[in-house]
């Protein structure tokens, strides 16, 4: 199953992937070089599922993701940084962009998951996006599941991706 | 919007296939790459578009950018304007059937550069070596057909196909099998015995192939484009490529495959590859000028339309951006162009029931003797168009004034109704709307014309009656391989000419500037990979173009990659759905 991770540059997309798949975190920010996609097999109920998680490879920086990146996604994860208002404001943009580019058949019910990352930063002192505000956005946008994570401290990362996997699985067309 | 950093080893302008191949190769070789395109989407003239975008793109040229005032010199460097002042598309004619809903425009992924790839060709090897194959899925072309005597004739894709083919007489089956065996054995001998500059077509006849068989081999197996131009050496190499490609990914499958979502995904795969290796991507970013070293004219940097200066040690751009370099090149107006005629049709059914990806070859003269050049057609289905509909692409080198004049008759051969204002059946391919017997009749009549036009072949009498009898006796039993009047209808057809700028002589450009050409015809990517490799070699003479990277051993990684691709192909299957 193909999962794509969207969100502004620097919110921690690559770190989340790496923490989830490799249990590794690198404190240095490298404007994504070398991140491609990672695969992880997980058990959901009685099903063994392979998640293929696609990074943006940095092409989001200048709004230059191509349609090929979006195609065939079973779930779309949108990440923001709880310490950065603009990255939260851009959730709308990324969601719209996904729906236009990927053109999924089930526009209304397509599974998104929203992740607010970097909750560990300054012990939460620098947080500007409250959980309440984020949950409200998610509720208004079709009850999108919402997680707050720290890729650095490995908080809630597994739970977020487990939800992603379940949602992706539910999106599998029955007839194909 | 400021681009950081401001210095790169290479700046690539345009996201066509050749450009993207070079960008990916440079990033793989550890070079820093800035890859920009003035368009909203990837691909340039190689892109894929929705139906609405296609109409807009063909009819209105991309807006030419406002000239910004740059002066003649910046920090001691010359300023050479980069401007695309021409639109490659002309004679655009779009026809839509009244009252037919073609479905949402977004459900279409229409290639500006549709192509089939040989299952073995440099592009596929580059995809495997680079890992870019992971970004793409392919599907096999299920069947090739050749248009002969007014009908689609299946091109055998395997030995068992040869035996099963009821349109072949048993003597022809023997002839063809023996011929192919001989070619395979000769290829093993490093072609010594058959290397020759003589025309391939003559050689085929010497081998004892009947005229229809020689035609089949020349146009639908060796994929020759003109009667006399292919030499025996080239022809035998082309046969070798085809035979090696056949059945590579599935027994009994043909020689060709096609990206699942169309050819427009190929440049994007190489762009992603480049991005993964650190290349920076900026769409909607025209470049205004190139900064050149006085004297050598070597590129030292570029200026974006927004006025930002970026230093670089090399520049790659589509040929159409580099005119200003050629204007004062010593060999003057050596700008070479070729002109293609293209058609895109949206149909309501497949050319052949149960098949989706289909290739059709019209040999010269096969469309009522009118087409001087080979016409190729590719049909593809869902997911590049809504389920139940198909896209049919046609292409040939133009000889007539407009694409429609070149292609409308061939379109009329394949489709029952076309909303192109040419509903009157053309003489060559009368549109049969009534019953099958009438169609038989007219086909016989047509054979008669064909037989007179062609030179008599040994063993066959060029008389209408003989030809007709043969047809009824051997070629068209029980409608098995016969197209009756169930041909699909088109609800949309669009004709246009495309002017493709070819490479100028290398010397015409500065030593650190390479050009990329636009897309050619429908068959294969060899010339484009070769051209990208040459461009890359010019800029980075010490680097290898997509070397095999070895996690373990060379053999293993390649096998593994091959395994991956094979697995993908098997799961997808030839039928698409």
UniProtKB/TrEMBL annotation, chain A:
UniProt subcellular location: Endomembrane system
Principal cellular location given in the protein's record: membrane
GO biological process: protein transport
Superkingdom: Eukaryota
Residues of the signal peptide: none
Keyword GTP-binding: yes
Keyword check for GTP-binding: yes
Keyword annotations from UniProtKB, A to Z: GTP-binding, Lipoprotein, Membrane, Nucleotide-binding, Prenylation, Protein transport, Transport
GO cellular component terms attached to this protein's record: endomembrane system; vacuolar membrane
InterPro entries: P-loop_NTPase (IPR027417), Small_GTP-bd (IPR005225), Small_GTPase (IPR001806)
Protein topology in the membrane: Lipid-anchor
Full protein name: Uncharacterized protein
UniProtKB/TrEMBL annotation, chain B:
Pfam family of the protein (one): GDI
GO molecular-function terms, A-Z: GDP-dissociation inhibitor activity
SUPFAM superfamilies linked: FAD/NAD(P)-binding domain
Gene3D superfamilies linked: FAD/NAD(P)-binding domain, Guanine Nucleotide Dissociation Inhibitor, domain 1, Guanine Nucleotide Dissociation Inhibitor, domain 2
GO BP: small GTPase-mediated signal transduction; vesicle-mediated transport
GO cellular component terms attached to this protein's record: cytosol; nucleus; Rab-protein geranylgeranyltransferase complex
Classification via PANTHER family: CHM, RAB ESCORT PROTEIN 1, RAB GDP-DISSOCIATION INHIBITOR
Similarity comment: Belongs to the Rab GDI family.
Name used for this protein in its record: Rab proteins geranylgeranyltransferase component A
Organism for this UniProt entry: Ostreobium quekettii
């Amino acid at each position: 199953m193909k999962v794509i991770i969207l969100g502004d540059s620097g919110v921690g997309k690559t770190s989340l992937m790496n923490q989830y798949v490799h249990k590794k975190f690198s404190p240095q920010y490298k404007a994504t070089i070398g991140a491609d996609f990672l695969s992880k097999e997980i058990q959901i109920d009685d099903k063994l599922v392979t998640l293929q998680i696609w990074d943006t490879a940095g092409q989001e920086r200048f709004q230059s993701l191509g349609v090929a990146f979006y195609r065939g996604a079973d779930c779309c994860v949108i990440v923001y940084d709880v310490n950065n208002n603009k990255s939260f404001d851009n959730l709308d943009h990324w969601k719209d962009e996904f729906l236009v580019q990927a053109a999924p058949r089930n526009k209304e019910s397509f599974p998104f998951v929203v992740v607010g990352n970097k909750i560990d930063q300054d012990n939460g002192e620098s947080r500007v996006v409250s959980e309440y505000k984020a949950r409200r956005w998610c509720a208004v946008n079709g009850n999108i599941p919402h997680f707050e994570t720290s890729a650095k401290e490995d908080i809630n990362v597994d739970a977020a991706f487990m939800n992603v996997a379940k949602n992706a699985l539910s999106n599998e067309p029955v007839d194909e | 919007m400021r681009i950081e950093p401001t210095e790169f080893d290479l700046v690539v302008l345009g996201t066509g296939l050749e450009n993207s191949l070079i960008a990916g190769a440079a990033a793989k070789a550890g070079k820093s790459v800035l890859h920009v395109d003035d368009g909203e989407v990837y691909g340039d003239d190689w892109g894929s578009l929705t139906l609405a975008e296609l109409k807009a793109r063909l009819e209105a040229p991309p807006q030419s950018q406002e000239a910004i005032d740059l002066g003649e010199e910046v920090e001691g460097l010359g300023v050479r304007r980069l401007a695309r002042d021409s639109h490659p598309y002309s004679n655009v004619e779009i026809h839509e059937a009244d009252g037919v809903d073609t479905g949402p425009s977004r459900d279409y992924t229409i290639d500006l550069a549709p192509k089939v790839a040989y299952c073995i060709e440099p592009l596929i090897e580059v995809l495997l070596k680079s890992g870019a194959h992971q970004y793409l899925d392919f599907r096999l072309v299920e069947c090739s057909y050749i248009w002969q005597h007014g009908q689609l004739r299946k091109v055998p894709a395997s030995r068992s196909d040869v035996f099963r083919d009821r349109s072949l007489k048993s003597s022809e089956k023997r002839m063809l099998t023996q011929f192919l065996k001989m070619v395979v054995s000769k290829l093993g001998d490093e072609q010594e015995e058959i290397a020759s500059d003589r025309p391939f077509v003559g050689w085929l006849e010497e081998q004892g192939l009947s005229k229809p068989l020689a035609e089949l081999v020349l146009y639908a197996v060796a994929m020759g484009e003109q009667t006399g131009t292919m030499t025996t050496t080239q022809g035998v190499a082309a046969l070798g490529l085809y035979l090696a490609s056949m059945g590579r990914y599935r027994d009994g499958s043909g020689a060709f495959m096609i990206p699942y979502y169309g050819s427009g995904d190929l440049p994007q795969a190489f762009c992603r590859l480049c991005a993964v290796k650190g290349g920076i991507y900026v769409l909607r970013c025209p470049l205004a000028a190139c900064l050149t070293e006085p004297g050598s004219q070597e590129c030292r940097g570029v200026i974006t339309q927004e006025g930002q200066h970026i230093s670089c040690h090399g520049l790659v751009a589509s040929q159409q951006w580099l005119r200003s370099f050629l204007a004062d090149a010593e060999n003057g107006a050596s700008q070479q162009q070729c002109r293609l005629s293209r058609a895109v049709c949206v149909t309501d059914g497949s050319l052949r029931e149960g098949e989706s990806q289909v290739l059709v070859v019209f040999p010269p003269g096969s469309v009522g003797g009118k087409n001087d050049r080979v016409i190729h057609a590719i049909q593809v289905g869902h997911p590049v168009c809504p389920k139940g509909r198909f896209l049919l692409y046609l292409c040939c080198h133009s000889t007539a004034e407009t694409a429609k004049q070149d292609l409308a008759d061939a379109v009329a051969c394949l489709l029952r109704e076309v909303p192109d204002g040419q509903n009157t059946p053309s003489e060559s391919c009368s549109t049969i709307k009534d019953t099958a017997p009438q169609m038989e009749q007219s086909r016989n009549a047509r054979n008669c014309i064909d037989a007179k036009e062609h030179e008599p072949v040994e063993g066959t009498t060029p008389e209408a009656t003989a030809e007709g009898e043969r047809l009824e006796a051997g070629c068209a039993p029980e409608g098995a391989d016969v197209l009756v009047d169930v041909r699909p209808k088109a609800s949309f057809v669009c004709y246009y000419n495309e002017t493709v700028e070819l490479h100028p002589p290398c010397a015409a450009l500065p030593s650190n500037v390479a050009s990329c050409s636009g897309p050619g015809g429908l068959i294969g990517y060899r010339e484009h990979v070769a051209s990208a490799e040459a461009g890359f070699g010019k800029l980075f003479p010490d680097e290898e173009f997509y070397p095999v990277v070895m996690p373990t051993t060379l053999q293993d990684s390649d096998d593994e990659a091959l395994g991956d691709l094979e697995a993908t192909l098997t799961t997808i299957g030839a039928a698409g759905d």
